[in-house]
Amino acid sequence: MTGDPFGGMPLRGRVAFGRRPSQQQGAQLGDGLTPEHRRRLTVCMSVSLSIVVRERQEAVVLPPQAIRTENGQHVACMRDGARFASRPVTLGITLPEGVEIHEGISPGDAIVLRE
After folding, report:
1. Which residue range or ranges hold the CzcB-like C-terminal circularly permuted SH3-like domain (predicted)?
2. Who wins on pLDDT, 58 or 7?
């Protein structure tokens, strides 16, 4: 979270949404909020948020053109020495950087992009 009262220092926190109107909703700021930040905050102040839904440090992400469907199954074309082979993959979420791969590809595998 960034905004004018934070002086360019991003803060970490969490956003909670209730399923019923009686449950608490709103943003909870991280422990990095100083007394000076608290003094500068006002009701209805604008802030910029980046919401991380989940984080996987070792995720494999491929460009969308590396994934195709063969016989109803998602596959990626792999280079195996001098050969090329389609390998089944299990897709995760789609990110601005590409498609997350849960299974079927490891970091360092040589992927062939389709034309």
Report:
1. 60-113
2. 58
Number of domains in the chain: 2
pTM: predicted TM-score of the whole model, two decimal places: 0.53
Residue 35 lies in a domain: yes
The sign of the dihedral angle between the CA atoms of 87, 91, 94, 100 is negative
pLDDT in tens, 26-43: 555 555 667 777 777 777
29 sits in the region (left: phi over 0; alpha: psi -120 to 50; else beta) called beta
Q: Does 32 lie in the same domain as 66?
A: no
Closest CA to 53 of 11, 25, 10, 95: 95
The predicted pLDDT at position 10 comes to: 67
Tokens at residue 66, please?
């590396």
For the record, the structure tokens of 108 come out as 């360092």
Paired tokens of 52: 């991380």
> Which CATH number covers residue 103?
2.40.420.20
Say if 85 falls within a structural domain: yes
Quote the pLDDT of residue 26.
Answer: 54
In one letter, which amino acid is 96?
P
Return the structure tokens found at 22.
């009686």
